[in-house]
Amino acid sequence: MLHEAGYRQRTESKELVVVDAENQVEFFYLRPRDIAVYVGSGKLDIGITGRDLLLDSGAAAKEVLRLGFSRAVFRFAGEPGAAASVRDLEGKTIATSYPGVVAKHLAERGVIPGGIVRLDGAVETSLKLGVADVIADVVETGTTLANLGLEVIGEPIMESEGIVILPVGADAADEAVQRFLRRLHSVMVAREYVMMDYDIRTEAVGRAVALTPGLESPTVFPLHRKGWAAVRAMVPASQAQRVMDELEDIGARVILATRIHSCRI
Questions:
Q1: Which among 58, 24, 28, 29 is positioned nearest to 41, based on CA atoms?
Q2: pTM (2 decimals)?
Q3: 118-150, pLDDT tens digit by residue?
C-alpha cells in the first residue's frame, strides 16, 4: 500500500530504516508489538499496526484510519461445557497472547478471572497441558476450534485489522499527516473500483448510465461515428462482471475494465 501510495520502500527484509527524501518521510521497520509503544511515546509520528496490538499495548496512541487488511476476530474458547458466556469465566484461568485486551474486556464486564497467562505460542495447547481453563485467541472460522475439540464461548472480544495510529496528543489535521492519510486512502479507494469504458448507441445512453452512474457522474462524449457515444465511469470492482453483462445486454460494445492505481475522491 505504501509503495502504491508513492513512497519508497525497502527492497530487502534486512533493511530496518528507509529514507524517502523526495517525500520527506523516514520509515522504520519494527516488531509489530513495539510500534504502538514507539508512537505512543512520541518517538514516531505515525505508525501502522494492528488494532489488537494497539489495545494490548496500552500505549498513548489512537486509531485514525482503518486499512482493511489482516482482519481477525478474537474470541474465548474452551472444551465443551467449560463456559456458556463471559460471565462463566469468573475465577477461571485464561491463556492468551493478548493479556491487555483480555483484561480490559473482562474488567468492562465486571468479570474477575482466576488468572491471565500470557503465551506467545499456540495457546490451545495450554488446555491440554492444564495451564489454563479457557483460551482467548484469533478465530477466523470455527473449523480449527472444532478440529481441536473446542467451542466458542460468548460474543467476540474484538475485531482487529491493520490501522494507522498517531500519538494521543497529535494533531490529525497536521498537513504532513493529512497528506500521508490521503495517499493511503486513495490507494484503498482505487482497489475497490475499476474504470469502465464502453461505446453505446446514443438512444441507449440513459439506460447505460443508470447501470454506471459513477461516483458523481459518468463522462459521456460523442464518437466520430454518428449515433454512438463513449462512456467512462468508476464501477465497484466486485460488481464489474455483472455490470459488463448488463451493458452487453443493452448493446454496449468494446467494454473495458481497467485497474485504478490511485485516486482522490
A1: 58
A2: 0.80
A3: 988 777 778 878 888 999 988 766 667 777 788
